[in-house]
Amino acid sequence: MTRGAVLRRVGQAVLVLWLAYTGAYVLLAALPGDAVMARFGNPDLGLTPEQLEQIRASYGVDRPLVVRYFESIGAFLSGDLGYSVQSGAAVSDLLAEALPSTLTLAALALAGAVFLAVVIAFTAAYGKGEWLRRLFRNLPPLFVSVPVFWIGIVLIQVFSFQLGLIPVIGASEAQALILPALTLTIPIAAPLAQVFLRSIDEVREQPFVSVVKARGASTSWLLWRNVAPNALLPVLTMAGLLFGELVGGAIITEAVFGRTGIGSLTVQAVAHRDTPVLLAVVVIATVVYVTINLIVDLLYPVLDPRLRQARGGARPGGAAGAPDPAPAADPAAGEVSAPGEAPAPADPDPGAVPPARSTPDRHRPSGAQR
Amino acid sequence: MKKRRIAWIGALAAVAIAMTGCSSSGGNDGGADGGGTLTYLEPQTWNTLYPPAGGFYPNGGVLNQITDRVLYQNPETLELEPWIAEELPQVNADATEYTFTLREGVTYSDGTPLDAENVVKNFDLFGKGDSDRALSVSEAINNYDRGEAVDERTVKFFFTAPSPGFAQAVSTINSGLLSNATLDRTNEEFGPGNAAEIVGSGPFVIDDEKIGTELSLAAREDYDWAPPSLEHQGAPQIDGVDFIVAGEASVRVGTVTSGQADVARTIPAPDEAQFAADGLELIAASTNGVNNSLSFRFAHPLLQDIRVRQALIAGIDREEIVDTLFSESYPLATGILAKTALGYTDTSQNYVYDPDRAEQLLDEAGWAPGSDGIREKDGEKLVLTFNEALPQPRSKEVVTLIQEQLGEIGVGVELFAGDQAAQDAARLELDTIQVYHSMVGRADFDVIKSQFHSANRNALLNLDPATNELHDAELDALLAQIASVPTTEERQQASAAAQQHLADQAYVLPLFEEPQVFGLRSQVEGFKTESIGRPSFYEVTLQR
Asked: Which ranges carry the Solute-binding protein family domain (chain B) (predicted)?
């Protein structure tokens, strides 16, 4: 990337961040009630409207929205995340408590989802027997349509209450992760498997595959050396979307399993109109989202030779330009083939339209909040 | 290639097996020396441990274990009995002065003594609040002026006007006694993240907290000042209680029925049958207050005509609601107060289901059926908006069933959807909510005043906050009377008069007596609830 391109990227990221922040702020303010009402307006406290007014004034929420908005932006820029109105705890403390648990859950679920997606896609493409392939082909749509909370409840019922394998209460750290991770794995694996399967199907149709086959490549060679790398690209494109799935799924999963985490923190923050907490979560989510997309964009040329630029060559700028079709050597081409095995072809057909792929400068709608 | 993949799969499987195969320590196996730790499941997490905010059940459930009160209210008889006070208070003739004599030797878990100075400090805060620290006044304490420590064991309280409910008020969770240092905290410092620093003198002490999910209470070994009327004295017989938040009802039910937890609060009516099995029990504790009811906000143009309100009452089939949606734990209401509540009067003849009469009343009031079946008058449709009472059981289903029933007589019903914060904001707007679904648990004559008086919960919006206009001054006067006459007989009469007024004016429709339903394993013995259905673990033993 040239320096200009890097600067443009950073600028875009900051803009996305600011838009997400403002959007969350405005939406939360638009909901009926505010943090002070949420905390003190409960009839159980039996406070009179005058007493409520006093408390509102002491929190400063009776001032105009614009003033409070700029104040919060200022505080954010100086690194002060503020305090939760609901509990009075420092937002940084709440995040420190919630982040590790959610990250562990998300990482496990993602790993599980990739594994499951690969298994489903390969079985659906190369499984033994027509019925098996058909069965696995229909798994992703099924997985996508099953509600996450329902999966969670069923898993608890079966594995914990019926079979007694995993306690829900008093479980060790590892045990407490199994069911939530499984719950979160299924909805994430579904789109992954679907995209992966689709691109395997498309790559298999490519002429070079027939060539490789003709040269005596085994199915597994074909799969690992030729089909998989080419099918990986669209899967990678999904990474940003998957992150959104992860956040959304974590919210529900953490609620069902009563886990501490960013998900349950978000739910609480929205329910209590707890602006400082919610904004911190939004900023974190946006930063991660932007970062993931940046990494994906940078990885594209590494994975797809057709996207590499000739050195010093002008790069098609911000508009969705066609990828530079200068064919370069496929990374697999450098491998020395073992005797008896067919060497891999050096070149995915450059004439064919690349399968289901967006261009490097993708403009996605921003905001990871679903 | 193939080998490597198989190795991977094998490794993954091994990890999975190792993880599930870990020996589980349920954390509640009764040891030889201790009585074990009880696991208690709550549907919601607590949000503050400031006692006057104990009306929110999750808060009260914790406060009831960690704080003592000056007096003890017997949950069976609702009589007041000594506790931290050696005897019942001396009260002057017009109930403006109370004198308590305190027990000796009571200490807080931080070692400081519970003496007269400290009790005064407690009630000066609970009775007056402190807006600088955003600490509210206790709803249970009326007309508080000041407290005075006469000597180390004698406390006097003075009131600006008769305050006959004070003796009962000091027995509630909202008057849980706290150490001097704890009383200096701000509102934030009573919130989540500070639990272990909230110091009471109760039988349990908070020793660990995971914000939003768990709270561990440990028994206090040197506890020796339980209410004298209790059979058990001294330290609790269990080692402690783990409060665990499980928002999902099916998870709470399954966790207890599968033996992974001991007690769960809020068992939904449809799941009650599961606790009929061997080794399980169900306890439905009365909340002894204002029943689960609808308040018709009579200041709204659509509800100003008493005939419309009477028609709504006659058009709603309460028995169908209770039979369809609930169980035997939810008795049909016979008045605005529960049968066991102080001051209860039977007004059930005002709440008879009679759809024909309902139609007739609406005809008389000039509401004629429109083209879409909803009645109209002067071009306006008779459509009312109900709130969804989120803390109450199955409120949405109740309103949906009512929508169906009132549809039969040509009245439209809409449900105000929204979370708790939205509901709390909407509750004060006459144009948003015309029929308010709610209840209040409190075992005192004052409970009806709390619910309907314009200066308290104002459920009928008798006082419109927007216009500051009082619509039914007589109602307010009747309610205020309950909290200002000194003797029990007089309070009884005042309460009956207020209930009669509510019934005659067709302001309310009581639906059922809302219980607190706990599901528990039979191994849990001695589980009780206090006077409004909050759990009490002091006398519990675990048989393993």
From this structure: 79-429
Give the whole-angstrom CA distance, residue B379 versus residue A286. Answer: 51
In the stretch 4-63 of chain A, residues with CB closer than 8 A to chain B read: 31-34, 37-49, 51, 54-55, 58-59
Measured between alpha carbons, how far is A151 from A158 in angstroms, rounded to an integer? 11
Backbone angles phi, psi at B245, to 5 degrees: -85, 125
CA distance A230 to chain B (A): 18
pLDDT-derived band at B6, boundaries 50, 70, 90: low
Q: What is the DSSP letter of B274?
A: G
Question: Which value, to the nearest 10 degrees, does the dihedral of the CA atoms of residues B242, B245, B246, B252 take?
Answer: 40
Residue of A54, A55, A87 to mutate for B, most B C-beta atoms under 10 A: A87
Distance CA A242, CA A262 (A): 16
Q: Give tens-digit pLDDT for A196-224.
A: 888 888 887 888 888 888 888 777 777 77
User: In angstroms, rounded to a whole number, what is the distance separating the alpha carbons of residues A68 and B144?
Assistant: 37
Q: How confident is the model at residue B9 (pLDDT cuts 50, 70, 90)?
A: low
Which residues in chain B touch residue A160, judged by CB atoms under 8 angstroms apart? 254-255, 258, 260
pLDDT at residue B4 above 60? no
> Is residue B274 within 8 angstroms of chain A, CB to CB?
no
The beta strands (E) that lie in B203-276 are given as 204-210, 214-219, 240-245, 263-265
Q: What is the 3-state secondary structure (H, E, C) of B355-379?
A: HHHHHHHHHHCCCEECCCCCEEECC
> Which residue of B47, B212, B426 is in closest CB contact with A32?
B426
pTM of the model: 0.82
Q: Residues 398-427, chain B: which have Cβ within 8 Å of A?
A: 418-422, 424-427
φ and ψ at A127, to 5 degrees?
-60, 155
In chain B, whose CA is at the least distance from the CA of A221? B1
Q: Which two tokens stand for residue A365?
A: 């709608």
Out of A33, A160, A220, the one facing B422 most closely (by C-beta) is: A33
For chain A, what percent of residues have pLDDT higher than 90?
8
Chain A contact probe: residue of B15, B172, B213, B244 with most A CBs at under 10 A: B213
A162: how many CB neighbours lie within 10 A of its CB? 11
* pLDDT value of residue A1: 57
Burial-class residue B504 by CB neighbours within 10 Å (0-12, 13-18, 19+): exposed
CB atoms within 10 A of CB A323: 18
Distance in Å, alpha carbon of A189 to nearest chain B alpha carbon: 17
Report all structural domains of chain B as residue ranges with CATH numbers, in order of start: 5-285+517-542 (3.40.190.10), 290-513 (3.10.105.10)
